[in-house]
Amino acid sequence: KAGVTQTPRYLIKTRGQQVTLSCSPISGHRSVSWYQQTPGQGLQFLFEYFSETQRNKGNFPGRFSGRQFSNSRSEMNVSTLELGDSALYLCASSRADTTDTQYFGPGTRLTVL
Amino acid sequence: GEDVEQSLFLSVREGDSSVINCTYTDSSSTYLYWYKQEPGAGLQLLTYIFSNMDMKQDQRLTVLLNKKDKHLSLRIADTQTGDSAIYFCAESNNAGNMLTFGGGTRLMVKP
User: Fold this and answer.
1) Which of A35, A18, A109, A22 is closest to A68 using CA atoms?
2) How far is A26 from chain B (nearest CA, A)?
3) Minimal CA–CA distance to A76: which of A33, A30, A26?
4) Of residues B88, B97, B104, nearest to A33 (C-beta)
């Protein structure tokens, strides 16, 4: 069974631009969560989607948004990029509608110049 | 709020056992996880334990959970150089699939 895939793997953007990252969950998984990893703040939860609805949201500004499609694929968008948004963005998928084991993708490395 | 803490660094010799420790504060934690991250890679799920268990063994990995002290440990038997990585513990509760991670422990295995 294929794992969680994320595209693109690497991105370079400039301040003020916007970016969209994509995540395809493991087949049959309906929950997709997004995390930001930085050297300073570590791994922080962004949001979780289940059945096309945002179920949980972390403490990030409104510039960070996401959505989930009917096939469970998810995208996250960051508008008006700032230097501090440079990070590894990780997507995780799980099967169930309650707490369940999460499997992570390889991440998208975003660099903001 | 929830807080998960780990020591920053651990160095062991190849063939020895490694023990990585983690403490958490959320008493409503239902699942506790250990993930491994190698340079430039995502997170690999190693093992997990339900909060109503005390111990779980999976090949070279042994997880111990002390609920009273909110302490979790991961023991790696016969540690190999390929085990060198950053290890994260994480907890989740009944609020859905939201993981709270520790800061990670960098394990260095010397030949």
Assistant:
1) A22
2) 14
3) A33
4) B97
Which residues of chain B are at the A interface, by a Cβ-Cβ cutoff of 8 Å?
Answer: 30-31, 33, 35, 41-45, 48, 88, 90, 92-104
SS3 B104: coil
At A76 the three-state DSSP class reads: strand
Specify the amino acid at residue B66.
Answer: N
Nearest to B2 by CA among B68, B104, B70, B100: B100
How close are the terminal C-alpha atoms of chain A, in Å? Answer: 37
Summarised one tens digit per residue, pLDDT across range B3-17 is 899 999 999 999 999
A55, A70, A82, B20 from A19: Cα distances, Å:
22, 22, 11, 37
Q: Which has the closest alpha carbon to A94: A23, A22, A2, A30? A: A30
Contact residues, chain B, for A57 at CB < 8 Å: none
pLDDT digits (tens, 9 = 90+) for B18-57: 999 999 988 777 789 999 999 988 999 999 998 888 999 9
Q: In terms of residues, how long is chain B?
A: 111
